[in-house]
Known about the structure:
Blueprint: E1 56-60, E2 64-69, E3 77-80, H1 98-123, E4 133-137, H2 143-156, E5 161-166, H3 167-174, E6 180-185, E7 190-196, E8 199-200, E9 206-208, H4 212-226, E10 228-230, H5 236-241, H6 244-247, H7 258-267, H8 277-280, E11 286-288, E12 300-302, H9 321-325, H10 327-331, H11 352-366, E13 372-376, E14 389-393, H12 395-400, H13 416-426, H14 429-436, E15 439-442, H15 451-464, H16 515-520, H17 532-542, E16 548-551, H18 552-563, H19 570-574, H20 618-626
Parallel strand pairs: 1-4, 4-5, 6-15
Antiparallel strand pairs: 1-2, 2-3, 5-16, 6-7, 7-8, 7-9, 10-14, 11-12, 13-14
Helix pairs in contact: 1-2, 3-17, 4-7, 13-15
Amino acid sequence: MSAVPTTPRRQAHDLPTTTPAATPQTTRVGTSHIIQSSPHYQTTRRHSLYGTEDRIILDPGSRIWKVGFSGEGKPRDVFLAEEDTGQSLWTLNRASKPAEREEEDKVLEAKLQACLRSVFHNSLLTDPKSRKVILVEHPLLPLHIKEMMARVLFNNLQVPSISFASSHLLALLASGRVTGLVLDCGHLETTVLPVFSFRPLYPHLRTTPLAGARLSSHIKALLLMFGTYIPPATSLSAAMNIPAASRSIRVPQDVLTDKVIDEIKTRCCFVGDPIDASESGVGTGRASSPSGTGGDGGSELDLPPSDPAMSESDFSRVSAEVESTFSHAASSGYSVVSHSQLAGMDPSHVGGEARVQALATMYGRYSTATDIHMRVDPPPAQQTGTGRGTLIIPGWVRERAAEVLFEGGDVDESSVAEVILDCLLKVPVDLRKTLASSILVIGGTPMLPGFIPRLQAELVRAVTRTSSEAPSPPPGRSGRPRQRPTVYDRYAALRPLLPYFAILNNPAPPPPASASAAANAGKAPAFTPAMMAWVGGSLAGALKTGGAEVQREKWDEAEAGAAAPQVEDEDVLMGDSPPRPIAASSSTPRSILPDWTRTPLPVGAPPAPRPPSAAPPPALHAQSVAG
């Protein structure tokens, strides 16, 4: 069969220098059925909108959802689950009363249904009946929320199947590794999960509530105490004649909405380097007051000497006395930090307000960030002026607000660095070196500039801190120095791992101290930490792999078995025989969903039965008890 003739073209040197006015000639391509590359996606693969083989990748967070098709490098849509309020869909707390809990579940299911329908009908514009779904799940995602999502996807949208995959495992897949220690710092909590050869070690999972939600409340409390608000002028003449400094007031609570705090956190804040104790003069025991700089016009606060090895993050914990001093901050339910843990600082000598002012003075002295004037909407009670108000954010608040994430020493709220070290202590000894040299940081909070390099510095400092650096106790009543108590050094076993600490996606890794650190530090692909889990799900969908898959037929069978009414026999109805219980179906919608907390332990050797001769005689046992 002869080929399709094509129109001959002239050589390049025969072409005229000017474009002719005639209609340009086109070439008829005989192989028009070949897939052409899309002008938007620089690839020769079929566009996801026209094929049904690509899976839907859902990364549902408590606040932000990321959705898209498998095989693509970035999600199609990233949106807030609660666009109107900006709050999270669920929290870590549930109602204790059954009636309130049932009402909360109904509201949450309605919100999840609206979000999932928006994903298919607005964001992806695809038919859910012909698309398999890969659900990127957090290891600690509550099972009732997972069941709600599966119920909406199967019953309402009728998807063919759902595959559940761990977010930590998918993020490690996106980085090109099979073994690593993955830290996910999201909105509600920070979780560390070790993965070895694509096997998540769930029993060694560690978590802390220090995450994005705590950072947001910390920023709000700092702005309520140290921020400045300039309301709009009541008229144009007042705006021209009255200076802005005379109109400045303390920040009202209504100004700091969730959207404003979120914008400040994402656009204004960054993580500063740790302050050296020798340079900051923390151990000198004197901190200047904001009212003056010394001399006759200034005053100084006599602070007791503190631990020179402690960083400035140890001074950012403020006692609950601040809440009573600043009544408007206390009424909002926010505090700078929970309780005071300032070493050697007696609350009876230095009040809560003085400690806060000393903290602000120390941070302001060593901060290089500038103040930012941000235009915000005035509160509803003050919308009588012209224009918008101005919120002045101090530079040291922008730089040091994230210190709350790096504060350690609390048993219930470990810092981000301590939760990594605690996880390394949990894993087997032969895996510590490999995991310490392959740390991956993901989540939305690590996208703050300087977060990952600061985490590396905090890891090194926490491990190098020895028990000899503990603060000396105050002298006794007789004036004799007390004996230093023995301090347990819980990270002493990890000190040999110092040369091997390496973060895969560290944008500014320190000079490597070992070959494994040089091979891993900063070598992960340049995906943003918030997108690592979704990109891993996209790769898993393109490779036709994933986690445990639940088919819609299996879900329907489980629902039918759970909802089937118990039918009694005719003899039971006539009263000829007593009622016989009918065994309920063992398959329920919740039981078919994968859950690592219900995974049975590996089967080992059965326990050896105790021989009858080993049991003591009854008489001898009674005599021994009486004696």
